[in-house]
Predict the structure.
Amino acid sequence: MAPKSYEESLNEKLGKNPFCTLERAVYEILLDGIITFKITPGTKLIEYQLAEQFGISRSPIREAILQLEEQGFVTKELYKTVVVEPFDIAEYNELIEFRCLLEPAATGMASLLMTDDDMKQLKEYADRIDEMCKDGDFSLLSEYENLFHEFIIQSCHNRYIINAYKNIQPYLTRSRAAYLYVNKDLTPQLCVEEHSLIYNSLLLKNKELAEHIVHQLLKMLLMPSVRRSKNYAAGDHPYEQILKQEKSLLIQLTELHQRNT
């Protein structure tokens, strides 16, 4: 299926929400393209061309670009040329380091608060991630990854953590897309195992274990990191070794939990 044109995307967005302004709709469409790397770093955003592609005047385009510039997604160069910001490894790593502080704490809290219904919903997201990996649909994979992690954050019921996570959401989506962009040899099965590991740690309602597993997995996302390459023999890749260690720990604690209940 051919990708939708800007004009089609705009009409669809306005059709779903007639109260959405043109500026907001254009901003959201361009932002989605940038953070998912459909619009790659270094791409020039030219007002008159975008206006033609969206089928609207330049004014909403200008306002949308201004908002993207204020958020640091694009920058103005000589002669007012607007360019999508290059991928910055230092900035990326700062975000991962912040996530290492935020998400383990949120996951630990959520492990004690999530209900059976919450766990069913989380399992549904994990199953969908599995399906997307098998189908090779990486655009929807990113969407369900976001839903999976956002649901855990919401389940910690801490308004400050939830607000902090919400504030970094666009940068978070871009960082995930950047990791896939840089690590094109990513093995989908590893992504499935990561989320399964997090889900099963939450099932145990073990705060320390949930925090530990999420922290370990996040640390492996730092760049320049050991890449998840298909060139390694099965079981030899350092990332796979980390997963094995965490799964072994999970199994041991599960058995201990079952003996004590």
Remarks:
- Residues 89-260 form a domain with the Four Helix Bundle (Hemerythrin (Met), subunit A) fold (CATH 1.20.120.530).
- The chain is about 70% helix and 5% strand.
